[in-house]
Amino acid sequence: MTITRTTKAAASIIATACFLSLTACSSSSTTHAGDVGSVRSNPTPAMHTLARRSSDRANTHAYTFDTNFRAMHNDFDRVFHLNRPSRLHNNIKPY
User: Fold this and answer.
1) How far apart are CA 69 and CA 63, in angstroms?
2) How far apart are alpha carbons 27 and 35 in whole angstroms?
3) What is the CA radius of gyration of the chain?
4) Could you read off the pLDDT tens digit of each residue along the chain, which spans 95 residues?
5) Which string of b and e fits 18-30 if b means at least 16 CB within 10 Å?
6) Cα torsion 79, 82, 83, 87: sign
7) CB count, 10 Å around CB of 10?
8) Is residue 50 classed as helix, strand or coil in its secondary structure?
9) Are 91 and 82 in contact (CB under 8 A)?
10) Would you say the pTM of this structure is higher than 0.85?
């Protein structure tokens, strides 16, 4: 019985996957993510509020700041009549 090239490749992939599954979760440090003390002291280290991370808060703040200033510039143009040309003469305008 001959072993084909595909069978050899599949066997080596399976052997590598088995080896990595056995060694991937090990840690030589005494305090790592699976340590009970570190989990009890801070069970959600990435969360800064009940539902959001610091990066989510920063994105929301940037979006809000951008939206508010664009709206403010739009309001400024309307208050000072800069949002369209004057309609005081009879020339045809595209607005």
Assistant:
1) 10
2) 10
3) 31
4) 567 878 888 888 888 887 777 665 555 555 555 677 777 777 777 888 888 888 999 999 999 999 999 999 999 999 998 888 777 777 776 66
5) eeeeeeeeeeeee
6) positive
7) 11
8) coil
9) no
10) no
Q: Spell out the residues 6+ positions from residue 77 whose beta carbon is closer than 8 angstroms to its own.
A: 83
∠ CA 88-93-95 to the nearest 5 degrees? 95
Number of residues written out for the chain: 95
| Amino acid (one-letter) located at 9 | A
Q: Compute CA distances 65 → 21, 60, 75, 83, whole Å.
A: 46, 8, 15, 22
Q: Which residue has the tokens 């004057």?
A: 86
3-state DSSP assignment of residue 20: helix
Q: Give the amino acid at 70.
A: R
